[in-house]
Amino acid sequence: MGFTLLRGAALVLALFLAGPAVAQDLSGHAGPVSAMAATQDALLSGGFDGRVILWGADAQSARRVLRFHDGNVTAVAILSDGRFVTGGQDGRVAVWADTDQQPALVTAHGVSPVSALAVASDDGRIAVGFWDGRVAILDPDQGEIAATQAHAGRVSGLAFLATGDLVSVGADLRFTRWDRGLAPQARAGLPDLPNGLARAGDRLAVIFAEGSLRLFSADGALLPERFLSDRPLIAIAATPAIVAAAAVDGAIWMLAADSLQFRAGIPADTGPVWALALSGDTLFAGAATGAIRRYATADGALIGGGLTAAVDTFHDGSRGADVYRACAICHSLAPGDHSRAGPSLHGIFDRPIASVAGYAFSPALGDLDIVWTPRTVAELFEFGPDAYTPGSRMPDQRVADPADRQALVEFLERASR
Predict the structure, then answer these.
(1) What would the DSSP string read from start to end of 7-58?
(2) Which one of 207, 240, 295, 372 has the fewest CB atoms closer than 10 angstroms to its CB?
């Protein structure tokens, strides 16, 4: 088909076929979703594609799409004041204001990838764990204020307690509670390799590679435990009421946080679930496909209808629709549906660039004198977004085959009306 990707970017065309927002997953990543965090006001996701997406309070629309880290985004967190934090395979940590396009604080490239992040609710301190076992504490305005070699191997999880102390678990099978200066206050051994940690009220929930979920006290005493799967557990999220865990095959469990009594289960579906987040009565699950699925915590019911049926609805059997399906990541053709990383393309032709209502475009696009026509859309994919629409958040890519560009344009002329 002749797609040429510039800069080694993942295959993501800026044209996405989808149904109405209420009948679809959240889609904006061009690969597995590797990290998520949620509050009542926002959902933050990071992916293997290097993207960070801040979703709106309704968890329907992408408020911001950022590309900063070199390689995977490995951890994300949200501060109480609306700022957010990202960590990457490049070993860097970035602190972002809600509206800025560049981070307000950036650490230097590290020798080891970031493996975990946590934010203290009392003063906004940021804890960072690394694959080489180090733990650092950052002030979101000033940078690093403390660091220690916490574990002999990967830091698998971090969580702040209500007291302000920090708990870490690592590949050395150790559970450690640290004070504000990173002096150890309590240590305990773990029965197997931990893969994640989440605070559930006054307890710490830890998932393990042998398929068990265990609760611990703040000092590392073992509390209730439950074997869930003969496959490794790889993602966890918790609130004072619920603990959710996912296995490498994609199966998900929701359990009572105090007793680990079973509440709801979600069978394996779209492959590994690398990230989970809880907000209110909704569980967010990051799929290997790049989509974020939503489930009701009451019974595990899927919220929305998924992506596949919506994509097939618009396919008319043409070559242009085949090209369009291959890049089905970032945009919808439904009127007003901006729930993807980019705006809806409904009615795109004869419309000035960056003019559709309800989507926050890159400011640089407002200076461009482009009206979308069959010719200009074809030129966008002939020359690539970096050259044709400089300043756009769209990953740079081209459709190299002129016949494919023409087929795509003809399909859009039919499907975007």
Answers:
(1) GG--S--S------GGGS-EE--SS-EEEEEE-SS-EEEEETTSEEEEE-TT
(2) 240
* pLDDT for the residue 311: 41
pTM: 0.71
pLDDT at 310: 40
319: left (phi over 0), alpha (psi -120 to 50) or beta: alpha
Q: Which helix (H) or strand (E) holds 189?
A: strand 184-189
Q: What percent of the chain has pLDDT over 90?
A: 60
Say which residues have a Cβ less than 8 Å from residue 212's Cβ, sequence separation at least 6. Answer: 191, 192, 225, 226, 227, 228, 233
- What are the Cα distances from residue 205, in Å, to 20, 216, 258, 308, 317? 37, 6, 10, 34, 49
Q: What is the mean pLDDT of the chain?
A: 86
For 305-322, b/e burial (b = at least 16 CB within 10 A) is: ebbeebbeebeeeeebbe
For 207, 317, 333, 338, 401, the CA distances from 20, given in Å and listed in that order, are 36, 21, 9, 10, 31
Inter-CA distances, 12 with 26, 326, 341, 403, Å: 15, 8, 11, 19
**Quick one: tokens of 83?**
């700022």
Residue appearing with tokens 């997406």:
53
Burial string for 325-358 (b: 16+ CB within 10 Å, else e) reads: bbbbbbbbbbebbbbbbbbbbbebbebebbebee
Render pLDDT for 229-275 as a digit per residue (tens, 0 to 9).
Answer: 988 999 999 999 999 999 988 999 999 999 999 999 999 987 889 99
367: left (phi over 0), alpha (psi -120 to 50) or beta: alpha
Question: What is the model's pLDDT at position 206?
Answer: 98
Higher pLDDT, 156 or 318: 156
Choose between 195 and 98: higher pLDDT: 195
> Rounded to an integer, what distance in angstroms lies between the CA atom of residue 1 and that of residue 322?
10
